[in-house]
User: What shape does this take?
Amino acid sequence: MSATTHMSESRQRFRWKAAWRAALNSLQFKASFLVILLVLGVTVAGLGLSLRMTSDVVYGQARTQARHWAESLAGSIGPVVERADNEALVRVINETIRTGSVRFVAFADGHCRILASGEQTQGVMDSVVLDEGRRLKVDNLGAPRIVRSEKDDVAYVDVTVPIFASGPISSSQHASRKVLGYVRLATDLSHTQAQIKQMATHLHRLALLMLLLVAPCSLVAMRKVVAPLNELARTARELASGVMDARAKVTVHNEIGDLARAFNDMAERLAGAQFEMLKLNAELEERVQQRTHQLEDLASREPLTGLYNRRYFSEVITREFAVAERYDTDLTVLMFDLDHFKETNDRFGHRAGDEVLVLVADCIRAELREADVAARFGGDEFIVLLPRTSGSAAGNLAERITDRFMETLAREWPEFPTTLSIGVASLRVTRATSAEALIHEADLALYAAKTGGRNRTMAATGARS
Assistant: This one.
């Protein structure tokens, strides 16, 4: 009895081993295992490449933002550095440090002597100063770099840019301009690094989830792929055992291959047709969007000068006024009016008057930044919105526009009597309570310029009730 039981257990173990050996040697298991390895490898490589590319993009954006920030400070602080107004520099530093994303900022003169500086953590600037903090290191000019602080092991973007004697200008002309000093700015990367770390964690979880999903899915899929061959093998075994009426649910091997190739060709054509259809749909949608944007832009611009119209300007200043109040930033409006414009029209004709209007628009457009908005306010009046710009900086801009206009007018139409009167109104000076009130203050300043003799720039004082 014991011998019979032992033999039965041996047969069971043999059958169990044979079943596992057959399963491991089966086409279904091998194909599934290869699919899992392939998907896992592609997933890991793709997610790693995505993380690397995303990190490069994020750090690149951080460097670009830091350089633009430093250049913006250099462009707006030039007059302050030129007159050595240390109190104004300290105010700028305090405002910059209060943003929370700045590690340190320092202003130096043309000989690298530090005029004013500030840092969030004591000792962070030790690596960028010389002579016991009296001189500023000036290296890698205009090239932001990522540095890790030895003080608190925090990474930041460090960039140094020159301060020129006038406003922003293209890099090809820097060599011919006087350097008043330097700005060195460091922006914190803690938030950026936290985002990348969080992204890496999500990608690792995604890779694990894909592996857990691919394993059972590949087994099921391979079972479906191998099923016709298993059916053919079963039918062959039945025929070999003498069951002559056995019929396979699939055709013979050659016909299965032909069917698979035909199906693959059909699927390839369908996929190609679908891809072409999606491509055409995407192109059509892009063209519709481009055309919509073009129509919207045309509807918001004045046809003669190409500047924005009054309706669009009203929408923009309302939005920018809300932003300035929310973030406590300055907002300045310039209002232009052509002096003796009627005389120009009467003496030289309306076509000459139109040419003068176009010239004013071109001079205004040439001096503005991308964030600034210029519009034709009506007749011979123009208006410009300058976000995050002080009244003094706007006054300098007005003078540059006036100089450009007068030089061009004197060169092309010296007989025209036209000049420019400009009114300047900034939010911090006027304390206007609405966008309309700020425009009204600029209009009053323009009126003062007109009544004060024309061909001048007047700034609103904010003293009116």
